[in-house]
Amino acid sequence: MDRFSAYLLVRRFLRRPESRNRALAVEVIMEELARGLGPLARPAPESWGVMGLLSQLDLEYGESNPEARGKASRDQALLEGLDQELAESLARTNAPGADLLANALLVADCLAVMALGRSDPGFSDATLAPSLARELELRRQTGDAEGDQLDGALSQLRLDSQEVASMAVLGLQRAAEDLR
Question: Hey, where are the domains in the chain?
């Protein structure tokens, strides 16, 4: 699936501008993560960006039905012709042994929420990456299911909080104009 088709789906399924911004933020963070992972990231970074967009299709639906979050995105992506293996990464299983793409989606979504949730989401601030890294570390250490998932995802990606936060800021800076 190409980026244009994925973005049209985002426009169709996400009504609120903040939901669309989150999808765009996850897209650019996923692209930067793919670039940072180099040859480990298959398919190409642009495809990881498309997966980031698709992973947010059920964002608004998931607010009233959290158990379906991820599964509805997967199902819609399959209906649109996305490869079965790629679509499964959208299901947010993130169980031990989950694929690299699924774990990157988990981390990218978390970073997008943190970055966009700031009172002044200026992505050029030199303190943003260290701040995101600290917040990510705090979430990893909570001892709850989300913290355990983040910890496992970062371990599989073989990246630390500072590295992923820096990658996220690069992507967000690149897309800053679209996120206003």
Answer: 3-174
Q: For residue range 129-163, what is the model confidence (pLDDT) as tens digits?
A: 999 999 999 988 888 888 888 888 898 899 999 99
DSSP state of 111: H
Which two structure tokens, joined as six digits, stand for 22?
A: 């989150």
Predicted pLDDT of residue 119: 60
Q: Is pLDDT of 102 > 70?
A: yes
Q: For residue 15, which phi and psi values (nearest 5 degrees)?
A: -90, -35
Q: Which fold has domain 3-174?
A: Hypothetical protein af1432 (1.10.3210)
**Cβ atoms of 126 and 76 closer than 8 Å:** no
For residues 101 and 42, give the distance between their C-alpha atoms in angstroms, rounded to a whole number. 8
- Which position has the token pair 């690069």? 170
Cut 0.85: pTM above it: yes
The per-residue DSSP string of 23-92 comes to: HHHHHHHHHHHHHHHGGGS-S-HHHHHHHHHHTTTTHHHHHH-GGGTTHHHHHHHHHTT--HHHHHGGG-
Given a contact cutoff of 8 angstroms between Cβ atoms, the answer to whether 122 and 112 are in contact is no
Cis bond before residue 43 (omega within 30° of 0)? yes
What distance lies between CA 26 and its chain's CA centroid? 4
